[in-house]
Design a protein that fits this description.
Largest sheet: none
Strand content: under 5%
Number of domains: 1
Shape: globular
Oligomer: single chain
Structural class: mainly alpha
Transmembrane segments: 26-48, 54-78, 90-110, 122-141
Distance between the termini: 17 Å
Domain Major facilitator superfamily associated: 24-114
Protein name: Major facilitator superfamily associated domain-containing protein
Mean pLDDT: 85
Family: Belongs to the major facilitator superfamily. MFSD6 family.
InterPro entries: MFS_assoc_dom, MFS_MFSD6, MFS_trans_sf
Low-confidence stretches: 1-17
Helix content: over 70%
Length: 154
């Protein structure tokens, strides 16, 4: 089983290089783009003037790109990692992690942090913090991916 998982990680079931959506675009590139647009969304939310909440409507369409790109790439990535016959289990795992664990943890943390100071940071500071954390995580994740590629782990 261990060797099969290693092979599954390195290549999709079809024998193609792992992490490819087409000849030009990798799943990693799609995830990176989605994360960068998410960081941009957070910055745009942070700079919206307090007296003009309607401006959120100008930023919110970016959610369509960030969620769709992230979810499509994640689902395909999970499919490629799953051993043959376990694709549905892998999708259930990804679904559970995102919609249950991540949403619960994020809601709990955001609820405390977004309270007005002195009890929390407030919405504006939270969005700046989110943008910084997304970019920092992206740098760490992308760096780890590059190391894995150089060492031949993928």
């Amino acid at each position: 089983m261990k060797n099969h998982m290693k092979r599954s990680f390195a290549r999709g079931r079809s024998g193609r290089s792992h992490g490819r959506t087409s000849g030009r675009t990798s799943l990693i590139d799609v995830l990176v783009a989605a994360e960068l647009v998410l960081a941009l969304r957070c910055v745009l939310y942070a700079i919206i003037p307090r007296g003009q909440p309607w401006m959120i409507l100008l930023v919110e369409p970016l959610h369509g790109f960030t969620f769709a790109a992230m979810w499509c790439a994640t689902v395909e990535y999970a499919r490629q990692l799953a051993p043959p016959g376990t694709e549905a289990k892998m999708q259930a795992l990804v679904n559970g992690l995102f919609f249950n664990v991540a949403m619960a943890a994020g809601s709990l943390i955001w609820g405390f942090l977004s309270q007005r100071p002195p009890d929390g940071l407030g919405f504006t500071r939270c969005f700046w913090l989110d943008a910084a954390l997304v970019v920092a995580w992206l740098a760490v994740w992308r760096g780890g991916w590059e190391i894995a590629l150089r060492r031949g782990w993928t």
